[in-house]
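chain below, 423 aa
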Amino acid sequence: MRADHEVTGPAATGRTAAEDDVFGPRRTRGLARWRAILLALAVLAVAVFAAWWGSREPAPQAEVAEHAHGAAPTLAVAQPVMLSAEQARRIGVTYATVERGTLAQEIRAVAQVVYDETRVRTVSLKFDGWAERLFVDFTGQLVRAGEPLLSTYSPMLVSAQEELALASRLVRDVAGSDSTTRHGAQQMRMSARQRLLNWDVPEAQVDRVDGGGEILKTLEIRAAYDGVVVEKFVLEGQRFMAGDALYRIADLSTVWVEGEVFEQDLALIRLGQSVDIDIEALPGQPRRGRIVFLQPTVSSDTRTTRLRVELANGDGRLRPGLYATVRIDAGSMMPVLHVPRSAVLSTGRRDIVFVRRADGMLEPREIVRGLATDTRVSIVSGLTVGETVVASATFLIDAESNLGSAIGGMAGMPVKDPDNRDN
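prediction:
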């Protein structure tokens, strides 16, 4: 056995086996486990603190400051403002005087020229037949009263004419018979005659059949009035049934202009009111008419109501489909107080103007506004005639007023002493 043999194991380090268990790998794992536990507790503590901090009620002073800086300007916090002439010039402040007078307001409505529905008629026949020939054969053709539209052939019409001719001969044949026979023949004649008249056969044609037995194979259908063919449903040689529409003819001597007005303007519009009509196709040639109809309902989608103006169209230049603008004079009839529209500042809850006092201070004042035009606003209460108000840069004045109010409120807040560490 060698004396200098290598010594290994616990004896080599001078530690026992138990000490190796403590200071070996098991010790490392134990420390890592304790670090993980401590880290989880720290995270949990931070989360609980954050939840408590977010749910606590803000201090009253914080609420006041938040309202003063984040909310819309209101009269409750606005304070009078003093501006020098140089400051007013720099930010563009101008002034206006409260005036009394009538306001000229004009309501405009986009509109369109359309047919007068009471002057549109359909041409149809009361018997079956065929269109032998068309004298009016395209849409848009101008027709005059009495002009032929088409000629028709109808077996029903021919049979009715033959019955009338036969009844007329019978009346002549029984002229010397007893009254009962004569009366019966006369009744047959009148019945056959009335049938043709009920079918709108011209009375002159009926008289020819009644007097001389002249029977026509075809019948010319003529226009009963002047107008324009807006729709044509028949072709040459086509068979038609009683009641079928053949033509639709519109009399354009009078047309309608229909437009939409918003519900907030309805109080200023009335039936019979005179309006001006601007036609885009006829610039510089306005027409004047009267409102003849206001729709009794309001559209739930557009919040508008349809109005109708009737216009004479003797020159035929107003064509259905043209775009137009209806201009309605809806100004105030009685004198009212009014200021420039830019002088009124709306906060959403109230309307404010800044009045220049005798000492030069600009004082915020709540007003009640009335009728408004593009440039002026009527004042129901809050101002008197002759007062001077800020007419421009009103928003900047309001911001300055609220800033001064906020600074004044901060001056009364308690200030924390940084040297007093107990507070």
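Residues 43 and 49 are 10 Å apart (CA to CA). The chain has nine helices and 22 strands.
thats it, cya
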